[in-house]
Write the structure tokens for this entry.
Amino acid sequence: MLWAGFPGPESQPWHNSAFDTGGNIKQPYFNRLTEVLDRADELGMVAILGLCYHGQDERLWDERAVRHPVDETCGWLLNQEYTNEINNECNTRYEYEVLQPHRVHELIEQAKDISRWGRRLLVS
């Protein structure tokens, strides 16, 4: 959901991320996310939110830039008082080890540790 949808095969290599190379939020993506989450809430729908689209991890500078969006996104969701689940996919094809099966639990725990006003997100 933090990407603009399937860009199509003619647009390879895809560059479709809500984060810059340092892992900082690109505000237009979060403006769109606000609209989507608000509408889903109006309809009684639950949104499952993914942070990293296939192949976009290669555009991040380093592991810090992989971890930073977890903090930024979870903090943003909690500050907006959303209660969405964060879906951390584990794909062995990801560039950074922290996104691979033997370490992805670190990102899950990182997301679970972020709280605001005694609230935290459901993370799996």
